[in-house]
User: Fold this.
Amino acid sequence: MTQATADDLYAALDLFRGKVNENQRLRAMNRDWNRDIAVVAKDLPDVEAWIRMRAGEMDWERQQCGDPHIVLTAPADVLIGIFKGERTPTEPYLDGSLTLRGSQEDVLRLDFVSLMIWGE
Amino acid sequence: MKHVLGVSLGSSQRDHTVQVSMLGEAIELSRRGTDGDLDRAEQLIREHDGKVDAIGLGGIDVYFFARGERYVVRDGLRLMQAARVTPAVDGSGIKDTLERDAVRYLLKETDLLRPTTRVLMVSAVDRFGMAEAFVEIGCPIVFGDLIFSAGMPYPITTLDELADIARRILPEMAKMPFTMLYPTGKEQEREGSSARFQEYYDAADVIAGDWHFIRKYLPPRVAGKWILTNTTTAKDIAELRERGATHVVTTTPEMAGRSFGTNVIEAMLVALSGKRPEELGHEGYAEWLKRLNLEPRIENLQGGSAS
Assistant:
């Protein structure tokens, strides 16, 4: 298995942003949810990614921007799998390979976002 | 005497034991809360397995339902499987019939419910029979599953959309720790006076569903509204009276000042029948419910004329 790269992670975040922003129902659900989410790939220590949720719309950038509401930490391949919809966040969360630091409601909401996009 | 134990993830402050007589049989119903501690609940079940006639699982669901689909809740199943000898039930065996019938009864026998009555159902996947009954009548309805479990300001207004969202979310969510999805332990004791989501309460004539969800964001005033729920205590009723609610309707009967959860009532039916839940089945439960003649209990909180 090849090591996931920063570019792989960035491509997955681009895909995720597109899916979030094109989903009108999801945007309505998150219209009150303004959150900063730090994405930390444990095996890519020099890579930084920062998700901003504002009024239902998502954007992301390649730097850390202050105090996040949620910190998402996992190996890069786990993060990429989640953002690309190849895996749900639930199993890595339950087996400890994905850690989510933040309020319980925010963590749950992030799960909902992922499942509303990819769940079937 | 038959012994029924309710093991709940809810607050231990709501513990109680009562003795009742049903169809000439004496039954002791005892409820033990574990303050959200799943391990303690499992231990309690193991300790009483084989020593009581039936166990009810409260403060947790084993199954969620939406449009013919059943979703198994991992933590709930763990508790159910902890009982190897004594039958353990979560209330889902009777909930559908009991709550569907309660809505039909209220339409037919009271002035509380009409096809124009606006309903806020705080959560429907744990009470799909009740949800379908309101929709059958034609009531304008908001299903608050996303609002009350995830804090998302998104009212679901049709059973189709509820089923669609459930299909996307529940297979995974049902694997999460149940304490993330539902108020347990001390969270159940927290004062519910947040103005958050008040618009949904304001827009409804009746607030229906799980009591702890109803209470989660209960506004300081709910004047003129009535509540359809169960598991209320005398303190809960007093709180609703103070906030101006007109009636509380519980789908399960009051025993010693409070209404029990459907899990305890289902466990009671299992104990009375002497059969296992799978032997009873839907028809067996329906027959026992008919024999017990359980009707919704309507309490007028403001002292006006009874409906």
